[in-house]
Amino acid sequence: MKKYWSFFKMRLMAGLQYRAAALAGMSTQFIWGTMEILLYRAFWLEHPERFPMGMESLSAYIWVQQAFLTLFALWNWDFEVLESVKTGSVSYELLRPTDIYSIWMARSIAGRLARGILRMVPVIVVAGLIPAPYGLRLRVSPAVFGLFVLSMALMVLVVCAYTLLVYALTFYLTDPNGLMVVSVAAADLLGGAVVPLPFLPEGLRRFAELTPFGSMQNVPLRIFSGDIPMTDIPGVMGLQVFWIAALVLAGYALTRNGLRRAVILGG
Amino acid sequence: MKLYLEFFSIHFRSAMTYRASFFLSCLGHLLITTNVFLSVVFLLDRFDSVGGYTLPQLSMCYSVILAATSLAECFGRGFDAFSKLLSQAQFDRMMVRPRPLAFQVLCQDMKPTMLARLLQAVVMLVWSVNSGAVAWTPAKALVLAGMILCGAAVFFGMFLIGAAMCFFTLESLEIINIFTDGPREYGKYPFGVYGKPVLLVLTFLVPLALVQHWPLQYLFDRGPGWYGLLPVASLLFLIPCALLWRLGVRHYRSTGS
Questions:
Q1: Chain A residues within an 8 Å CB radius of B18
Q2: Reported ipTM
Q3: Measured between alpha carbons, how far is B77 from B111 in angstroms, rounded to an integer?
């Protein structure tokens, strides 16, 4: 366990170096969030009765989404891992007395946290100062907030397990680009990045909620905004756990098998 | 001009050499912008209209912005990716060649995969025309073409600013993305939908509303005829962009060997 922890720490420290990039990303996210809220506001002012959630809930959803963007974004691939599989330098990793899937997992989680930590606080603070109903407010009880934190942690695991599955498939595909672009697009649409899932047509929303993408940002964001009633929360979090188990098992098996059949050339 | 076409054909052929990867990145670009359009479709499915615009009208609005950005990104790529040029000191080589600098930067890099997005814009435009978004007159068709071309020019001007800033910072500033990638995403709605302050900024500071919101009012018969001439006014934006670029070039000191 200790060795995975140190991998985790190394990655975290490396990520925290890029402060200027974090600052730029932060202001981008702030403007993005503002535009998004202004847009939904236009719909809300015109047709408040057709709005599937309150404006306050939606504002909470959007600001938390912007603040934690780097945690959910599927497009934050770990290109070093992808390259190592493509070029074969992954063989060096095999010399280490550690399990490669676990190292990848530790790296991925740390990479996401490192990028996320610097950005989230300022966005949250500024968004909290914006007057209601457009600002960020805590609208749920402390107990539900606790569940939000938990589902956020589960979400990071779902996302990382998914990216690891893609890295594992790279052993078989050699060029994972197609899989990556399709995954990102599907995750954006079905995960609630393009539009929050409650705004989708009913049938598509139900389908999206069952996919692994629906267990990503959709769940914590909607718990935080109070859109998922308390009684339904155990069910959706259970689905998150299911997807973590399924994705980890598939990724682990594929990685092991991929490494066993891999023939690495070179001298 | 002949030299430019020659360069375009080189970039196109070099992109086509890796055919699979060319089509994959086309697909990637397309999926992103298709998602943007889908978000409009889903919201309009629920709300029917926003700010008095219908789905075909919004489709026309987005196709204008999409066509403009993809033209700018395809042909202005050299300025968009300028920081790379600087950090590899390729700019020094350009300075000793007997051709205008800006022309050389333009020829240095192009992004043919963006033509896939242009295709998407054309499809959306044809659909919106067929669904009767606009009561057509020859003047309106001309205005539409002007919106796309002048829009491409404004986006190009922003790449120019981004590149000029690289002279001072030596690396590309993500901040400029707010005005390049941002409008590509938020231009899916006429900027007036976002409220007055946004509209004012995009009219007088970065004149994107002049190629989108205002002339659209004319196309949809919601405003006077002279709104249709505003895209031409947006070209004034290129003057400060060009001046900034010149200032940058004058300021330039090589980054070394």
A1: none
A2: 0.87
A3: 6
**Backbone phi, then psi, for A217, in 5-degree steps?**
-60, -25
Query: Are the beta carbons of A185 and B31 separated by less than 8 Å?
Result: yes
DSSP bridge partners of B50: B53
Q: Is A196 left (phi over 0), alpha (psi -120 to 50) or beta?
A: beta
Chains A, B: CB pairs < 8 Å: 88
Measure A215 CA to nearest chain B CA, in Å. 19
Question: Closest-CA residue in chain A for B29?
Answer: A181
B175/A38 CB distance under 8 A: no
The DSSP output letter for B53 is: B
User: Could you tell me the pTM of the whole model?
Assistant: 0.87
CB contact burial A204-224 (16+ within 10 A = b; e otherwise): ebeebbebbbbbbbbbbbbbb
Inter-chain touch A38–B42, beta carbons under 8 Å: no
Phi–psi pair at B20, nearest 5 degrees: -60, -45
The string of pLDDT tens digits covering residues B46-68 is: 999 998 899 999 999 999 999 99
Burial class (CB in 10 A: 0-12, 13-18, 19+), A57: buried
Residue of chain A whose Cα is closest to the Cα of B38: A194
